[in-house]
Amino acid sequence: MIAIDTVLVKLASRCNLDCDYCYVYRMGDDAWRLQPKLMSERTVEALGENLARLVVAQGRPLSLVFHGGEPLLVGASRFDAICAKLREQLPPTVGLHVQTNGLLLNDDVIRSCARHDVGISISLDGPSEIHDRHRPDRRGRKSHDTVMAGIARVLAHTKGRSLLSGLLCVIDLEADPASIYDFFKSTGTPSVDFLYRDGNHDTLPIGKASLLSTEYGEWMGRLLDAYLADDEPIRIRLLDDMMRLILGGRSIKEGVGQDDYGILVVETDGTITKNDTLKSADGADQFAERWSVHDDLAELVGSPFFQEYHQSQRPKAAACLACPDLLICGGGMPTHRWSAAAAFDNPSVFCADQKRLIDHMREQIALRTAA
Description:
Helices cover about 40% and strands about 10% of the residues. The protein is of the alpha/beta class. Strand 2, helix 2 and strand 3 form a beta-alpha-beta unit. Helix 7 crosses helix 8 and helix 8 runs parallel beside helix 14.
């Protein structure tokens, strides 16, 4: 049986921000409109029961990430009750985390996270002139100051340093990478996870002129320079993973390298889907048969449908299989390999970018090794 590493749980199907790059609400998939706005108590109960059985069946723990939409739209008291219920049902080795946009991150929520050992990750795209350009609220109002206040509130808690897992940033190519790095270090976060804009072979990511252009690779290369120049750097997961792979180590998260990661997504009605970034690939996040948290999850994970989905993480394009950098880039995210004509049988739209970044990393590692 394939081991599940991460379960993304959609506590809310709606969001209080209107981010211009969102793969859920801005890339053509409207399935969220058919979902309940919030996950019911009955669905949470079934989720906990069946995830507990799955952990026993696979013989290893997993991480549960409250996601959305915006998961804190359930409200502080309901969020606390959900955390308490899942902590009661799940083995203590299961990690609980919340990925939030930070607007509703009040003291009650933070106390709940501390009480139930829930890690907090917050989405923030940089200083206000960058963040507010892309992440206004539903009325078009700026959100940066509220998010920054939420980060400060977490860090002010007695357990804040251990609660804050890090920040999540979607790259804006118009921003200066060195300035972005300095900004994030000033927030007090222990780490930042930088994400490329979503896109595929039919709709290129914003900022990419062509499949052969390297705008994102060059941006990340300049970020790497700032990162390596810092004697006391914060962690940057993508750069750390890729450099570990170049040096013969392993990655710790999907998107690079060739390790497999078992991922399930639970919608607010309890429906199980594939990785939700696949919503941007013409609704490719749906299984052929409907599965739910009310079903036997071990049976789902052992089914041919799940096996096929899991294998889609590995690239099949001839260009990828013949590439010497495949061990490092891993072929990229499946959603970035998609096209209507060939499904996932393509290199990533970021292939040229990743090659550019890998070459730059090798140059920097060689310089530091020789010094």
